Input
Amino acid sequence: MRKTGKRIKTVAKRQRGAAKRSGPAAPDQDEVMALKLRPAKLSPAMAELFRQSEETLGFVPNVLKAFAFDMAKLEAFVAYRNGLMLGPSGLSQLEREMVATVVSAQNHCFYCITVHGASVRKLSGDPVLGELMATNYRSARLTRRQRAMLDFALKLTVEPWAIEEPDRARLRTAGFSDRDIWDIAAVAGFYNMTNRLTSATDMRPNHPYHALAR
Amino acid sequence: MRKTGKRIKTVAKRQRGAAKRSGPAAPDQDEVMALKLRPAKLSPAMAELFRQSEETLGFVPNVLKAFAFDMAKLEAFVAYRNGLMLGPSGLSQLEREMVATVVSAQNHCFYCITVHGASVRKLSGDPVLGELMATNYRSARLTRRQRAMLDFALKLTVEPWAIEEPDRARLRTAGFSDRDIWDIAAVAGFYNMTNRLTSATDMRPNHPYHALAR
Amino acid sequence: MRKTGKRIKTVAKRQRGAAKRSGPAAPDQDEVMALKLRPAKLSPAMAELFRQSEETLGFVPNVLKAFAFDMAKLEAFVAYRNGLMLGPSGLSQLEREMVATVVSAQNHCFYCITVHGASVRKLSGDPVLGELMATNYRSARLTRRQRAMLDFALKLTVEPWAIEEPDRARLRTAGFSDRDIWDIAAVAGFYNMTNRLTSATDMRPNHPYHALAR
Amino acid sequence: MRKTGKRIKTVAKRQRGAAKRSGPAAPDQDEVMALKLRPAKLSPAMAELFRQSEETLGFVPNVLKAFAFDMAKLEAFVAYRNGLMLGPSGLSQLEREMVATVVSAQNHCFYCITVHGASVRKLSGDPVLGELMATNYRSARLTRRQRAMLDFALKLTVEPWAIEEPDRARLRTAGFSDRDIWDIAAVAGFYNMTNRLTSATDMRPNHPYHALAR
Amino acid sequence: MRKTGKRIKTVAKRQRGAAKRSGPAAPDQDEVMALKLRPAKLSPAMAELFRQSEETLGFVPNVLKAFAFDMAKLEAFVAYRNGLMLGPSGLSQLEREMVATVVSAQNHCFYCITVHGASVRKLSGDPVLGELMATNYRSARLTRRQRAMLDFALKLTVEPWAIEEPDRARLRTAGFSDRDIWDIAAVAGFYNMTNRLTSATDMRPNHPYHALAR
Amino acid sequence: MRKTGKRIKTVAKRQRGAAKRSGPAAPDQDEVMALKLRPAKLSPAMAELFRQSEETLGFVPNVLKAFAFDMAKLEAFVAYRNGLMLGPSGLSQLEREMVATVVSAQNHCFYCITVHGASVRKLSGDPVLGELMATNYRSARLTRRQRAMLDFALKLTVEPWAIEEPDRARLRTAGFSDRDIWDIAAVAGFYNMTNRLTSATDMRPNHPYHALAR
Output
């Protein structure tokens, strides 16, 4: 259990091999995180995911490489995240990414602000909206619905112990169903988890995120 | 997506049916949370999990009932949590529950302090250790290893942005491998998620936890 | 003034002598606190108090043993505390113990959460109420009166400088008299004192408190 | 218990009667606090204390008038405070007043900063020292002993849960005995109590304190 | 003194007139801030400054337009800022902009993060460095000198009262002279001022900053 | 740039020479700050300012001596400050000094509390008002206008990112114009700057301030 492998950036190489990719050194070969964990052999499902990522994004997100030391953990993480962020919900994907970015900004998480700020820019087509979520969403010109959603997510991040019925009532007044409230809480909760996992391991965002959808 | 069902405590009834359980009203039929989400039909795997919970604990933990409005979400949550808390790790199950309780105490999460404080009592056979984790772990007589682990988990909870190489170095000095550091971060991160999900929904711990292993 | 005595746990022995108690080693012989202060000879009134404590509780609370290095200080402490917590008041003893526990939980004081959480359990006959006060009173189902009282006590603990007339007005609206407001403030203030005295000295709660009224 | 009397500033009149004082309206007849509590008849001991205060200071400190609705409470408060602040100790009276002022400044308590800042000016003969304690003791030129004492008192005020053996060890290194450590903690704890009692009741310092020992 | 003028975005029009500029509507005609202050006639020096800004940047920074209701205030602000940020110093312009961005990020100031993050990108030629300063400088790979400078600026922003000789000594050890320390403090202080002025008035950054030097 | 001169208290001597002043050692010869910066030759305007200060106050404020290592910086600072604090405004000079003192109290700045507390005492003729601003303005009996002004200044100091339209609206309701709001923000911002500059350099207030207008 405790043997440590070579620095996980070498994961990229093995994985590219598994995914039959070739070509010049790509930015994703950079440092992934501060922990040295030996990559496991990708399961067929995960090999396919990595291949698709290369195809769509041009790289495999470092959070996936970081988890790749254990296929069960990687698959569980991907399943949970995809259900949450891509599955059916009363919240649009953009709204979920806005929550993710605001939570990450509150937690000063370089990895997550970079990745989810880029998603907000891309999904909204509005580069400034991404920066507003990453710096101070109170300065954005938001709908009442968006503002209520982000205020709830921020309070849940900063003082979860103080959330009470009036906080949920404000969301209902803004038009959210109970299922939507679950989703806001679940997304805000999830990024409070990943912010901490990436901060604890000094995970580095892949370079291409920085220029994405500027 | 936005239709809300009857209060989710009715989940208990349906699920008991699915699980062929009979007998007098148990404490687990109490209120589950403040959101009203219509329970979905349990998948075979989840029906089996609920049945086993009834058998082992005498009840189904409310967090599982709360997630039962959507089988994909429930299964992904269970898979992620079980891999994290029950899977192979350089951290003992007790150590992982100590981290869970300390994080939950910092976040003043009634549900999670109750559940994980009970686990610490049970796994350690020491009721006072559970209370120490739930109030102030600094007052406990801990090994250097335990103390380093809990200090890291607390800092990661309170100011994740300030974790840096010296924090990881202190864990290595205390005997933790890089894989162990990942696990401490993953457990601390996970309960920063569930603390927020249970606080956001006012989730209630099943009554039997309170008396468990006192 | 600066001579230090043997570790104060030896106080228990001398005091039991003074109180003519005999029998096997009791849990109260454990460590009392981190400071070594030589116990003084118990005054007749204090000897009687210690004897009564043994009789009623089965032990002498460690806070009394800790103060026993100086009879004047011990007697003044006991007089002030008993007037406050046992004397006539518009607040019931349970309400006063609820305030004590909520303040102690905010200050993460292991000694005081243990002792006053036990008192809440005992006086209310409701073990869960004790745990709610010790973790997050906002999760409890309280009357408006109780809630107003605890909100005032918490704010007075966290930001005493921000208490103003509207805070007192809210208590009056909830049915409290000016004398009751004094008592809430006096109890909240007192535990802000004892929390700090017990934390500063690493005072340990007597073991029997943990199992009391579970 | 719940009958409220006339505003307690009338206490001054009755008490002056009891103390046989005469003369023009003095500043101490001003408002005492925001709660209206009917003054009780002064016990002989307290009548004597009030008389002495008039003689020595020219007024009765408002905190005593505020407590005068109940002789048992007033006497217990006076006994505890006098033992603490005037009784034998390894800490000089000035050192105890320095702790009182620093704690009160941290808690932004107008009553206590005024009263104890005046005491520091008077006992030290140094008006600037009083202001330094009332604004930021880190800007004062202190001995190592004084600095260690005030750092401990401040930490105990701000995060009592984080006091541990190294904090006590630093005091011992600076020359304090275990008994002295008790006294520092007891004084810091006491003003964390009175700061809250005076803030909760909007207690007003007697005017003469402001000009005292400038 | 209290007459308010038309919303200050009209300043742009008048000023463009003064500066003899023509052409299509530029982004600088957008909203400047939430206060409506009537623009004053530009003094010759300020008209020249505005003209140069248009020439160099393509727009007049909104902070200058905001101050343009009073020429004396605008000129004093410009003189102070230019001396600080462009004048001779042991700190490079990039270092001063790094301090400005880190302070602004701590204060979640949308205007200043946008403007100074852009300056860091431009002066360093490294877009990612700008984002690191704007999110969490601890994640950047900095020299010891840079790190010491930014740690000092951050502490001075968050808890100025706790800066003491060891903080200055750490800067000297990292190679900074006393004059450099003054400059770090002056820059960090200045942006603690402007962050508050722009937040208080909801000042909006000119759009072109967002894309600058990406 | 990096040569450091003799400790800046020697500035006083040179400057007195430049200002043709003679006589016994005055209190302004004391320590100015913790940085050693060689004083520059006073420009005629600054020599005149220093001379007037000596005449009016009996000393040159240490903040001016501290800046005197560079005439351009000193002149820009004086121009900005004088425009702000002495120039035309809908806020009286007393109101501006009240804001300055409340901000400085929040930042625990010994230099600025001393100087601006003295100004409040002098301008109001009410020594207690100065102490109230320096300890806790909530304890003062203020007009609605004053209270709204100070609440805004405090919030802008503590959490500038959270200022929004309702905060400005409250000021307008209390009778302030948009220009007045600018001035409140500008004064609060300015002292957030000088508090940090004086704390960073351990600047010492001239002794005469302490006794001024008591």
Observations:
- Chain D touches chain C through 56 residues (CB under 8 Å).
- Confidence is low (pLDDT under 50) at residues 1-28 of chain D.
- The CA atoms of residues 90 and 177 of chain D lie 8 Å apart.
